[in-house]
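U., I forgot to send this yesterday:
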Amino acid sequence: MRIGLITPEPGHPLLAATAALLAPAHLVEALDPATAAVEAPGPLADVYLLKSRTPRALELARRLTERGAPVVNTAAATALCQDRTAMAELALRAGLPFAATRTVGSLSAWAAARGALLPSPVVVKSRRSRRGDLVARVDDGAGLRELAARWPGEPVVVQDFAPNSGWDHKLWAIGDRLFAAVRRSELSAGGRGPNLPKAPSELPAGWADLVRATGEAFALDVYGVDIIDAGGGEPLIVDVNAFPGFRGQPGAPEALAALALRRAAGSGSVGSGRAESDRAGSGKPGSGGPGSGSVAAL
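Result:
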């Protein structure tokens, strides 16, 4: 099989480990979206893994899809997870317990319109999800004005602050294979700390099914769902991410390699969010293809 990695960072721990598993029997090629030819990227691979969210990476993924190549995750699903307004609208339409989200436009304009009126704490987030974006709890009008001074003109969404334990549940999926950890919320006074591993079997009842339902709704195969316990094990989804890093999750490279081979072989539909055979994704993939493979960068 020929597997393409759409990423500027082929050395990312998850991708590097996945490529190492595949390389003995398959050809793995890294396509840097900053330099790969969008119009004519060459012969198609059997499957592409999209681990980039730049406009050029999304356009490359769209063109490959138009040419008939399976891409995991699709450009459309990846782009949707970057827009927190669209994310909330889709989640609520799907009946998922997602934090109620309102789009207020420019932070500075909203702060000026609110004045000193902020009757209860809120969470303010950049509308566009990206590395280094704005995610902050604001308790009063003075805090809002201070935040607006630091992020003038930033398009934002606002969510009512939901009292919780101060711990985020970081849940990830590769097909139907689940991974879990807990981490101090970035909204907590001490800031977020390291991920602490948690067995999926230790999750409250129904949470694993909720993660899979989220993947279905968002048409994702490789994704993360951030959940807080709103009390008594009641889940509240606060974020959905396409193709997270799965750092420190044993078995993630094996699950991703197995998923890539299944998609390459055409045994599942791209963007389905699930595949029955993914439940067995913890083992190393078989050779599956003739000859010796290699890892190449394009």
